[in-house]
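hey so u asked for the seq, here:
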Amino acid sequence: MDLAAVLDGPAWAMRRRLVDREFSVFEVVRATLERIAERDATVHSFLTVDADGALRRAGELDEKLARGELPGPLFGIPVSLKDLFETAGMRTTSGSRALADYVPDWDSVHAQRLREADAVIVGKTNTPEFAVFTRTTNDLMPETVNPWDHGRSPGGSSGGAAASVAAGLTQIAIGSDGGGSTRIPAALCGLVGLQPSRGLVPHVGGLVGTLLFSSAGPITRDVRDAALTLQVLAGPDARDPMCLRDAPADYLSDLDDQVGDLRFAWLERSGLVDASTAVAQQCRDAARELVRLGATVRASSGSMQADRWRDGFYQMMMADRYASGGARFYEDLDTRALLTDYARTHFERAAKITGAQYSRALGERCHAIRALEDLFEGADLLLTPTVGMVAPELAADRNRIPDEARLPYVAYTYLINYTGFTAATVPCGTVDGLPVGLQVIGRPGSEATVLRACRALERVLPPIIPARAL
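ran it, structure tokens below
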């Protein structure tokens, strides 16, 4: 197999060939950097590429293998990290001019665990400023485009992460998701994206996040790579008092098990902006494949009631972002002047949220948890569209006001963050030549079951391949 084919394949297969010394890590990383230089001039998925650091790390890993030391679970795999997460010695901007020259001297827990797993961090992917917009645009670089169609958006806020994987630049990208920001771009780019349960992946590092809703998670080309990456990221950290204290489950050992014992509920209505007829049909057809595998799938007449919970979610999300760092940039007049219009407006609104509003929203969150639990009655997992539309045209989306533009993106996703449940998106076909994602939702702590269901779908659904030259 030639090196180009290895780069186009899954990370788990690349690791095997690296460990078997079919290729050196240096060769793989050099070829990855060449791809980024060639392709990213049009996609704009990377804010920073650390070519020297990546090649140096590749050499260190080749030496480690030569010494006979045990290779880590992501040995030699080039990965990207969303530019919200601190990386020692590598620029971390959060998509903001206010942080254009910020180079931290420490690693977020996400960067730390990637390095400990022997991954090679090749760079930081583009994000809207402080991850508060649905398009991946900021004042530092041109807007990220969707590799399937350069006139369309990959969504946000992990749009750079998803675009980097869909463009064939890396097999694994780490995004973040506070209301759908990993799953949405993964779905719009034809990829797998996972939002872990609250507290599974620690919050140590990450700029202007949320206390309860945000989590780092993988964006990958296949489900096994997502499970492998989650295994690396998950687990307790004493520095985060809100993270789960138990060791994470084994997400790989049962991944290929049959799903005939699982019960699914298909839920088509978000209650906010429902999926288009074509997207909903594509998702229903994918759900029927689970029946062929022996699983039980019933149609639910219920709704996610996304209209009911929206105000409480956004009040808590905005207040948390303001408290965790937004105030630092908004209240200083010099840094406020550097903010994009959408970030400045976001923080201006966040500053006006009262303690009473936050408390009421917290109470609403308890009702939302109960309502989502009720939708699971008689089911192990829920199925919904991930996004109710295909990737929108950039020109059309630019003309919509931010609040209005956000709703079709997050209608099926934000409730997972609000309640602390887990969900993944898996590609399930195309509409008008653009990818569609099916969302698999699980109760807190059920990532292994969610991934098993996604893997079963991946095995029976035809693969979708972007219309791009690899």
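The chain has a mean pLDDT of 96. The longest strand covers residues 422-431.
lmk if thats what u needed
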